[in-house]
């Protein structure tokens, strides 16, 4: 896959030249050429992973490999996505399980038994039930703001550990719940775990991965979200067969499995080199970098990481710098809009309420759960398309192709539902129309799975400079969780009032989002994190708002590092 990024031979240049054109090369008292750099030793059995980055019209390569160790570290961190996806899928089954409703929502349970609702669009409209589902996302939103100072002070690794512990306790409380306060306490703790995890996991992976494979490794996080959703769908189907009314407890308790994997795994993996440098442990950072790259000569990459981290240390208030610093307008824009747009695709309401949606269009209980399992399988396997292509065709191409596919499928789903139920919502869904709806929902899910799904997490995690990276990621997670909760809360009401037009609404949103991406998102594939900031200065629109990276602070930091390393 390496031929998809341009290569250049690493030249024997003085450090001052590698740090940028702002520092003049040191004077030399002789005219002899400088000695060649010592050869780096490549450990056998690994794939070469040198990175080439466009930097001030030239390309640089770091020696390194895709080692089994760095893959293992990223895989463990990516399990954080599994707990998020598991809850999305599980809640759909819980809110349609009679024994669960009878125990914790008896009033709603009795109302559903007594009422005869002929309007298929409104038969599941309940604000109380949707508030139960949304409570996790609101808790995650609050936790996301605490994740930034936590990750900055203690590192990405320990943030993952605390997230896993919070989710583990929440899953135990939920599985053992005997009353509503116990259930909701567990639910809120699950939200804390989700909020911390989806902040730390993408950051950890982006900072550990070689730039040329960063897209592939970062998408492991989205893959785990899809695995979590599929696991929950299978769990819902299996527990629905358990007699005695306690199957829902098994589903909630199963959340302890991925959280235990993260808790134990985070104790075995190192923190990221960037985090170690920022917290003052340069030697551990250099050793970690050598281990995850599989080579002994990591001087060039270490110097660039140190330069970026030194600049980060000068930022005492990253939130203030992000909002008012002046040079982070593009990053701030995408920190706010990418997670907002991701929710406007409508994916979470499709996955969150898949059993309810399929029951609405005429499927029986078992058939609706089977259909949600099918969409879960499509979600998982389609994510592999993004894993294989993100570092080849680029982020923009996946956004544009997937967006187009989602628009078409949403229009068709809305049309089929409208033809059967019309505006009144009365009538029955024929088997042929029901199968067409499942088919195009799967087409929609596939388009999301290789575009807005993985790219919605990858882009925010890689476009921020280290000075504001943790704060910006917190903002991204908080916005994502807020709009996840908001859309989840109003989805059934929107379905009741907009009817089949709801799918046209989401299709129109995806159209606007696709135009936004086509015009305003630059390509970032194969670029090391510390160099991504330069891409904004070349963009036709963002260059008007970005202060040149070679400002006074940047020049001062580069000179300082050059003197220390010379």
UniProtKB/TrEMBL annotation:
<dbReference type="GO" id="GO:0015145">
    <property type="term" value="F:monosaccharide transmembrane transporter activity"/>
</dbReference>
<keyword id="KW-0769">Symport</keyword>
<feature type="transmembrane region" description="Helical">
    <location>
        <begin position="250"/>
        <end position="269"/>
    </location>
</feature>
<feature type="transmembrane region" description="Helical">
    <location>
        <begin position="129"/>
        <end position="148"/>
    </location>
</feature>
<dbReference type="Pfam" id="PF00083">
    <property type="entry name" value="Sugar_tr"/>
</dbReference>
<dbReference type="InterPro" id="IPR044778">
    <property type="entry name" value="MFS_STP/MST-like_plant"/>
</dbReference>
<feature type="transmembrane region" description="Helical">
    <location>
        <begin position="66"/>
        <end position="86"/>
    </location>
</feature>
<feature type="transmembrane region" description="Helical">
    <location>
        <begin position="369"/>
        <end position="390"/>
    </location>
</feature>
<keyword id="KW-1133">Transmembrane helix</keyword>
<feature type="transmembrane region" description="Helical">
    <location>
        <begin position="433"/>
        <end position="452"/>
    </location>
</feature>
<dbReference type="InterPro" id="IPR005829">
    <property type="entry name" value="Sugar_transporter_CS"/>
</dbReference>
<comment type="similarity">
    <text>Belongs to the major facilitator superfamily. Sugar transporter (TC 2.A.1.1) family.</text>
</comment>
<keyword id="KW-0812">Transmembrane</keyword>
<feature type="transmembrane region" description="Helical">
    <location>
        <begin position="188"/>
        <end position="205"/>
    </location>
</feature>
<keyword id="KW-0762">Sugar transport</keyword>
<feature type="transmembrane region" description="Helical">
    <location>
        <begin position="92"/>
        <end position="109"/>
    </location>
</feature>
<keyword id="KW-0813">Transport</keyword>
<feature type="transmembrane region" description="Helical">
    <location>
        <begin position="502"/>
        <end position="521"/>
    </location>
</feature>
<feature type="transmembrane region" description="Helical">
    <location>
        <begin position="332"/>
        <end position="357"/>
    </location>
</feature>
<dbReference type="InterPro" id="IPR005828">
    <property type="entry name" value="MFS_sugar_transport-like"/>
</dbReference>
<dbReference type="GO" id="GO:0015293">
    <property type="term" value="F:symporter activity"/>
</dbReference>
<feature type="transmembrane region" description="Helical">
    <location>
        <begin position="402"/>
        <end position="421"/>
    </location>
</feature>
<dbReference type="InterPro" id="IPR045262">
    <property type="entry name" value="STP/PLT_plant"/>
</dbReference>
<feature type="transmembrane region" description="Helical">
    <location>
        <begin position="472"/>
        <end position="495"/>
    </location>
</feature>
<dbReference type="InterPro" id="IPR003663">
    <property type="entry name" value="Sugar/inositol_transpt"/>
</dbReference>
<feature type="domain" description="Major facilitator superfamily (MFS) profile">
    <location>
        <begin position="73"/>
        <end position="525"/>
    </location>
</feature>
<feature type="transmembrane region" description="Helical">
    <location>
        <begin position="160"/>
        <end position="181"/>
    </location>
</feature>
<feature type="region of interest" description="Disordered">
    <location>
        <begin position="16"/>
        <end position="47"/>
    </location>
</feature>
<feature type="compositionally biased region" description="Pro residues">
    <location>
        <begin position="22"/>
        <end position="39"/>
    </location>
</feature>
<dbReference type="GO" id="GO:0016020">
    <property type="term" value="C:membrane"/>
</dbReference>
<feature type="transmembrane region" description="Helical">
    <location>
        <begin position="217"/>
        <end position="238"/>
    </location>
</feature>
<keyword id="KW-0472">Membrane</keyword>
<dbReference type="InterPro" id="IPR020846">
    <property type="entry name" value="MFS_dom"/>
</dbReference>
<dbReference type="InterPro" id="IPR036259">
    <property type="entry name" value="MFS_trans_sf"/>
</dbReference>
<protein>
    <recommendedName>
        <fullName>Major facilitator superfamily (MFS) profile domain-containing protein</fullName>
    </recommendedName>
</protein>
């Amino acid at each position: 896959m390496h031929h998809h990024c341009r290569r250049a031979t690493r030249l024997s240049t003085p450090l001052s030249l590698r740090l940028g054109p702002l520092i003049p090369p040191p004077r030399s008292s002789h005219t002899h050429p400088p000695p060649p750099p010592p050869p780096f030793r490549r450990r056998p059995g690994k794939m070469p992973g040198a990175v080439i980055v466009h930097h001030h019209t030239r390309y640089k390569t770091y020696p390194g490999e895709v080692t089994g160790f760095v893959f293992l570290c990223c895989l463990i961190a990516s399990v954080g996505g599994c707990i998020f996806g598991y809850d999305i899928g599980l809640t759909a089954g819980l809110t349609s399980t009679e024994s669960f409703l009878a125990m914790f929502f008896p009033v709603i349970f009795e109302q559903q038994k007594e009422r005869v609702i002929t309007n298929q669009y409104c038969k599941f409209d309940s604000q109380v039930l949707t508030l139960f589902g949304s409570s996790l996302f609101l808790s995650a939103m609050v936790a996301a703001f605490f994740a930034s100072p936590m990750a900055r002070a203690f590192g990405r690794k320990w943030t993952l550990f605390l997230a896993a512990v919070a989710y583990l306790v929440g899953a135990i409380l939920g599985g053992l719940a005997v009353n509503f306060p116990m259930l909701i306490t567990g639910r809120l703790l699950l939200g804390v775990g989700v909020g911390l995890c989806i902040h730390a996991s993408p950051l950890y992976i982006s900072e550990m991965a070689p730039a040329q494979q960063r897209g592939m490794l970062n998408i492991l996080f989205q893959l785990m979200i899809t695995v979590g959703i599929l696991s929950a769908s299978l769990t819902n189907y299996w527990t629905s067969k358990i007699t005695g009314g306690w199957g829902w407890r098994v589903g909630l308790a199963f959340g302890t499995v991925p959280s235990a994997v993260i808790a134990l795994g985070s104790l075995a993996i190192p923190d990221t080199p960037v985090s170690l440098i920022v917290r003052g442990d340069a030697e551990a950072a250099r050793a970690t970098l050598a281990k995850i790259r599989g080579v002994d000569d990591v001087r060039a990459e270490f110097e660039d990481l140190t330069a970026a981290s030194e600049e980060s240390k000068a930022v005492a208030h990253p939130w203030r710098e992000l909002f008012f610093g002046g040079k982070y307008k593009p990053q701030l824009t995408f920190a706010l809009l990418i997670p907002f747009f991701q929710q406007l695709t409508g994916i979470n309401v499709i996955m969150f309420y898949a059993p309810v949606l399929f029951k609405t269009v005429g499927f029986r209980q078992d058939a609706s759960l089977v259909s949600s399992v099918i969409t879960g399988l499509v979600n998982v396997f389609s994510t592999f398309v993004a894993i294989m292509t993100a570092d080849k065709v680029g982020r923009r191409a996946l956004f544009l192709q997937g967006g187009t596919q989602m628009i078409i499928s949403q229009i068709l789903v809305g049309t089929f539902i409208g033809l059967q139920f019309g505006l009144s919502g009365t009538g029955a869904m024929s088997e042929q129309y029901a199968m067409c709806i499942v088919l195009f929902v799967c087409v929609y899910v596939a388009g999301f799975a290789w575009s807005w799904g993985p790219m919605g997490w990858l882009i925010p995690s890689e476009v921020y400079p280290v000075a504001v990276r943790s704060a910006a990621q917190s903002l991204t997670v908080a916005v994502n969780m807020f709009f996840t909760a908001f859309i989840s809360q109003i989805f059934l009401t929107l379905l009741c009032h907009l009817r089949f037009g709801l799918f046209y609404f989401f299709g129109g949103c995806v159209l606007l989002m696709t135009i936004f991406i086509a015009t305003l998102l630059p390509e970032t594939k194969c670029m090391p994190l510390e160099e991504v900031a330069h891409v904004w200065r070349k963009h036709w629109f963002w260059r008007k708002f970005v202060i040149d990276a070679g400002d006074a602070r940047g020049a001062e930091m580069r000179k300082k590092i050059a003197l220390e390393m010379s």
